[in-house]
Amino acid sequence: MLRKAYVWVLALLTAAMPAAGQHLAWKGQLSSWGIVNFEDAAHPRMGIRYLPALNSVLGTAGPASVDLEASVNIFGSAIAGRGGNSDATAELKPYRLWIRWATPQFEARFGLQKINFGPARMLRSLMWFDTIDPRDPLQLTDGVWGGLARYYFLNNMNLWAWVLAGNGDPRGWEQFGSDEKIPEYGGRIQIPVPSGEAGFTYHHRRVAVGALWQNLAGISRTRFMEDRYALDVRWDLAIGVWAEAALTQQALSAPFRSRRMVTIGADYTVGLGNGILITGEHLMLQVSESLKDTGEKLEFTGGAVNYPLGLLDAVTVMVYRDWKSDTWYRFLNLQRTYDRWQLFLIAFWNPELFDIYQATAGENLFSGRGVQLMAVFNH
Questions:
Q1: Tens digits of per-residue pLDDT, 226-235?
Q2: Which of 362, 347, 342 has its CA nearest to residue 32?
Q3: What distance, in Å, lies between the first and last C-alpha atoms of the chain?
């Protein structure tokens, strides 16, 4: 019901804008791709996606303004099957659908929107409300339904507060989704520190566990409360340095009641040629019944190198190491960028089953070994 209310309110506002003579901006992104997995080279996959977006300024009053964004995700893919058959899917769903009231120091945004924060880039402990895979050239992620308010102080300190509802699917590192009928809420404060910035974040939600997962995981309750706490900091020194630490506590007796995640990272641009950007991160994750227990421990290390070959071309290499399963994730991206066009040639060599980015939107196209060619047109 809440989603339908958002859709109808924003749809009516959008329909009324031309009559009111408001400022409209229409843009979109069309992408198509083909991928061949060497484990099943006889059945390549093809896909196409269109993200049309409408932006409008509904009105202004002195320094304040009201604007909105409405966009949809139109997606289709097909797998070439045996005997000339194909396995095809298609989907149409809202991508962004929000209205915002903003002043130079304050904004309040309501609807389907992207909410993300934290300095980490590859192995993010603070991936709470999005499913962004750093290897995805388009950085796509589904949004969340809710309201977000932010206030910016003149000394660069800022406060965030949010209330979310109607979001049932797992996000980020979540194993279980949220109860769509119970609002979840939280907030964040970011403060300047010497040579950098620090943040503290809190979030509360009611977890919803399906019957299948309840039996598999041995959980006695289908609904329970969860609290998250996080601290992050970034310093811009001779090199960029950052850290994220997150604690999740669930109100149930289970082996995964307590989750601790810590990310440390750094980046540096080497002054050779056009400049080589080197980024490294390490993630430590522990899941246990209590804070005192060690429980299950996972560790990942990631590294990325980005080098612009010229005005149009760039190459990016990413490598991840899973220390528990002794596996490697490898990714190479060659990119060419024009005014409106982008071309990507991607090669990957990864495990068949992933222990990272489990909640990314859609299926994992980068499992196994293969190549992908992608063309993107922006208008």
A1: 999 999 999 9
A2: 342
A3: 34
